[in-house]
Amino acid sequence: MGQKPSNLDIFVTHRRALLNYASSIIGSRSHAEDVVQEAWLRFHEASKGRFLEDSKSYLFRIVRNLAFDGRRRMKRESQIITDDDFDTAANACTDRVVSPETVALYKDEYALVMNALAQLPDRTRIAFEMHRFGGAKLREIAAALDISLPLAHRLVTDAVQHCKEQLGWP
After folding, report:
1. If DSSP states are collapsed to H, E and C, what string results for 16-35?
2. Considering 47, 59, 126, 158, which has the largest number of Cβ atoms within 10 A of its Cβ?
3. Which GO terms describe its molecular function (predicted)?
4. CATH ID of 82-167, from 3.40.50.300, 1.10.10.10, 2.40.40.20, 1.10.260.40
5. Over the stretch 114-151, which tens digit does the pLDDT of each residue have?
6. For residue 79, which of 166, 168, 164 has the smallest C-alpha distance?
């Protein structure tokens, strides 16, 4: 009788199909990569080295659920962070002549943001600072803080929303 394939073999064999499946749900190949990686971690944890019945279906279900969660999260985040926010910041940085009123305005806003960050729980503040100031990717934040990728995303999103509320932005 033949030997059953390991869970790793199943994952490696179907990785491309999993990526295509996640990508079709999310609409982004790079986010699909993150989803498939998270799915493997959950799949591996669930199996704890033992063979699961119908492992392929179970793996695809994990990817499906994570992809839909990711799509919902991206939609929520896009409602919170708009391109107008980045355009405003970019235009402010390109002005070469800065009026005293502009300096005062941005000093006040800077103080509000610093106060808002000080109000956040440490883990949320660190995740935000790593992402926005350090340019860290969500998976890097998750690894550094020893948390899941979805939690890292939620912490950054919560911090952005808190700062926007403190600034009185919609």
Report:
1. HHHHHHHHHHHCCHHHHHHH
2. 59
3. DNA binding; sigma factor activity
4. 1.10.10.10
5. 898 899 999 999 999 888 888 888 988 998 899 999 99
6. 164
pTM beyond 0.85: no
Amino acid 65: pLDDT = 92
Q: Are 128 and 164 in contact (CB under 8 A)?
A: no
Q: How confident is the model at residue 17 (pLDDT cuts 50, 70, 90)?
A: very high
Q: Residue ranges of the domains in the chain?
A: 7-79, 82-167
* Other CB atoms within 10 Å distance of the CB of residue 144: 14
DSSP class of 5:
P
Tell me the pLDDT of the chain averaged across its residues.
Answer: 82
> Which pLDDT tens digit goes with each residue over 88-98?
665 655 555 66
If you write DSSP's letter for every residue of 154-166 in order, what string do you get?
Answer: HHHHHHHHHHHHH
**Residues 155/73, Cβ–Cβ less than 8 Å:** no
- Scored b (16 or more CB within 10 A) or e, 39-53 reads bbebbeeebeeeeee
Contact 77, 157 (CB under 8 A): yes
